Amino acid sequence: MQLSRRALYPFCFFCGSQFPYTIHMGHTRDSVVLRFGCDSLRYVVTALGSTWHPEHFVCTHCQKEMGGSNFFEKDGAPYCERDYFQLFSPRCGLCNEPILDKMVTALDKNWHPEHFCCVKCGQPFGEEGFHEKDGKQYCRQDFYELFSTRCQGCSQAILENYISALNALWHPECFVCRECYTPFVNGSFFEHGGRPFCEIHYHKQRGSLCSGCEKPITGRCITAMARKFHPEHFVCAFCLKQLNKGTFKEQNDKPYCHPCFIKLFG
Q: Quick one: fold of 104-147?
């Protein structure tokens, strides 16, 4: 059976016109360019399983001719390289530009690797990874600096162990007497003004240290010369005899019994 001349020649996919006989001329990555002859020479494009006039094989989006150029296919339609990436490539979560090469996926977004960095300091994340807060990414240092609980003693971020006391959190090394900075023995401390103190400095803050021995007064005391004393420690500064409140003389902020005062000061 002899085939008709019309059946041997291809048709343009876009306009339906039939081409004359063909001679193969070359190809691009995704299409084949053919040269046709008869009364005149013409070129056609074979791509996507069809044959096209060069002026009819255009980008679906921008209508630019693509006969001798690389193109990309999406849902059976051809696109130039630029429009394909602009329309269909994933977008960077920071710059919103198409991602053409390597990509990081995090926080339900895609990123250029160089754009996925700490929103506070701008540094890329190392092996320790990142921390998320309200949909934003932070490096470890900035996350703790911005959002961690602060130590009541030093106001720095608490990253590991802590002590909970006086309705606050403390670094273990910061929970010490606020006067002498001595750690508390067996965890026992005294509170004054919302701050922890050792026993000595607690009583000092309250004005309940004996002026004679510098030890806390927990029982009876004598108040004299705007100070407090254990009764046994309120003594004459010269003879060291125990004094009674109201039966002493004062000289240079020191107490004296009457005989010693007369002897010393006339």
A: Cysteine Rich Protein (2.10.110)
